[in-house]
Amino acid sequence: MAGIVVVFDFDKTIIDVDSDNWVVDELGVTDLFNQLLPTMPWNSLMDRMMKELHARGETIEEMEEVLKRVPVHPRIVQAIKSAHALGCDLRVVSDANVFFIETILKHLGIRDCFSEINTNPCYVDEEGRLHILPYVDFETSPHGCNLCPPNMCKSMIIERIQATMAKEGKKRMIYLGDGIGDFCPSLKLGEGDFVMPRKDYPAWNLMNENRTLLKAAVHEWTDGEELEHILLQLINTITVEESQMLSVECKFQTMSKAAHEALRPRALPVPY
Ligand SMILES: [Mg+2]
Ligand SMILES: [Zn+2]
């Protein structure tokens, strides 16, 4: 156990598209979505779209079927299974919602690889309509970060995870993401951590423009194969480093014990 926490963004990181756009496009409400987008925050708009879909007679089951068809690179599923098998603590931090993420991860058979899903909550009401709520109630308690959308600043979540890591004896974090919202939390990573932005996506662009602000080492990836290769390589590097550090500590302890023994005044053998 290397004590590694791996944090995954969801949209365009675990899955190849944006789950919100996927559902909106597949269920034929793209025009209304585009028309309303300038008038309200994305998260509120998604809730509005759920209301629209319900009014048009779309059921939760139909939405589940659409979500199960979402494009996913098979090597990413394998990378997640491997990282979990190697003892890493995997978590999702996403601006999608619990229903979309849980449905897709369960369908892919990898829900149980994750110890935590941090995202916008939702519930299905008695009429079978899905309600999507903001992760942060921006009316009563705004997060105050002007880099991030009003409903979620991923840095808040990363800082909470970092606070618990120390207590659980976990030391290193690897963060994977693609979007503008993944830049803010990347700034919270420390030396010894790694950030894996998807190449040519907004987070990658922002990191390139602001290299000096980042303490973590940056390793870009383009597709599922590269993600798998780099992630497993980083996990291996950390594991080797941590075990070397552990063996140095052990040697040091053994040495100091030997030195201590050598200096200890010997008791004279007492003849019977
Ligand atoms: Mg994303
Ligand atoms: Zn932020």
TrEMBL record:
The active site is at D9, D11. Mg(2+) binds at D9, D11, D178. InterPro entries: HAD-like_sf, HAD_hydro_PyrdxlP_Pase-like, HAD_sf, Pase_PHOSPHO-typ. GO terms for molecular function: metal ion binding; phosphatase activity. It comes from Capsicum annuum (Capsicum pepper). Transmembrane segments: none annotated. This is Inorganic pyrophosphatase 1. Substrate binds at D20, D95.
